[in-house]
Amino acid sequence: RWETEVGHIPLDELDAAQITAAKNILLEGRSPKTVNNYLSALSSCFDYAIKHLHWINANPVKNVAKDKVNNEIDRYMTDEGLESTKSPTLKVLCHFGINTGCRKGEAHGLTWDNIDFELNTISFTKTKRIRTCVGIDKAGEMIYERNKVTPTLKNGSKLKVISMKNMPELRKLLMEYKLRSNCEYVFPQDTQHSFRFLLEKCNIDNFRFHDLRHSCASYLVQAKVPLLNVAHHLGQKDYNSVLRYAHLAEDVTEGTGSVVAARIYGKR
Fold first, then answer.
1. Helix crossing, 227-234 with 210-222: angle to 10°?
2. Under 8 Å CB-to-CB from 141, ≥6 apart: which residues?
3. Which H helix or E strand runs over 55?
């Protein structure tokens, strides 16, 4: 994207004004979040040129304002909608995502030994990334590895534990699903195609798997759950100072888990 707009400008001549002008062009037909991600990628290139190649001394992207992103979600995946899918993996994955508020990569990195049905806990320790840069070749091109599993979560934490004590519906779904599983990973398949088909069937537009995480957070906040407890449940990056103790706080997610379950399945 950047090569099209500013690729003709030498690196040491590219300034914040030129990047801002290019950013405004890229915003046409794209969401602010997408273009902000483009800015982050460009910023990483400048940082690499500064720290490793010693080509330049400053990163002009740091002086470019990012656009405000509206994360408000007013479209929700209902239990009736999930029941309409013919994909058993997708059904369980969506229930799992909305109950735990996990990231998609965290769900796909989960193995069955991370789920303890006796202690009723789910321990997130890994992330599966669709595409990861693992280095640069001699020609200066980035080397990518697909479906790479990293030994940490996206925010850098090594462990996040969710209690299933007050999530009997999710626990039952997972136990039934495990009986049919013949793989080490809980969700080994990429359900992107099935997910899109489900959205079309439910007449839901502009919805991503990550929006299940937003829905989970919305349910908790609307139920007046303290934000710190919501952070424990989601494993929010902005609360890293608290997340050091999150793996000891399964009792907190017992309460948050019951709130989400009641919202989705009704009061028991």
1. 150
2. none
3. none
SS3 186: coil
Express each pLDDT in 249-266 by its tens digit. 566 677 788 888 888 887
pTM: 0.64
241: tokens are: 């100072």
Give the separation between CA 142 and CA 135, rounded to whole angstroms.
6
Longest dimension (CA), the chain: 64
Given a contact cutoff of 8 angstroms between Cβ atoms, the answer to whether 19 and 64 are in contact is yes
Local structure of residue 62 (DSSP, 8 states): G
User: Tokens 């537009």 identify what position?
Assistant: 205
**Residue of 23, 67, 56, 29 lying closest to 42 (CA atoms):** 23
Q: What are phi and psi of 134, to 5 degrees?
A: -115, 5
Instruction: Identify residue 264 by its one-letter amino acid code.
Output: I
> What's the CA gap between 266 and 43, in Å, rounded?
46
Q: How far apart are the first and last CA of the chain?
A: 51
List, for residues 217-239, the tens digit of each pLDDT value: 778 877 777 777 888 888 876 65
Residue 97 contacts residue 107 (beta carbons within 8 Å): yes
Beta-strand runs (E) in the chain? 115-116, 121-124, 127-136, 142-150, 160-163
Distance, in Å, from the CA atom of 181 to the CA atom of 185, rounded to the nearest integer, reads: 9
- For the record, the structure tokens of 60 come out as 């002009």
* Percent of the chain whose pLDDT exceeds 70: 87
- At position 262, the amino acid (one-letter code) is A
**Kind plus residue range of the DSSP H or E element containing 159:** none
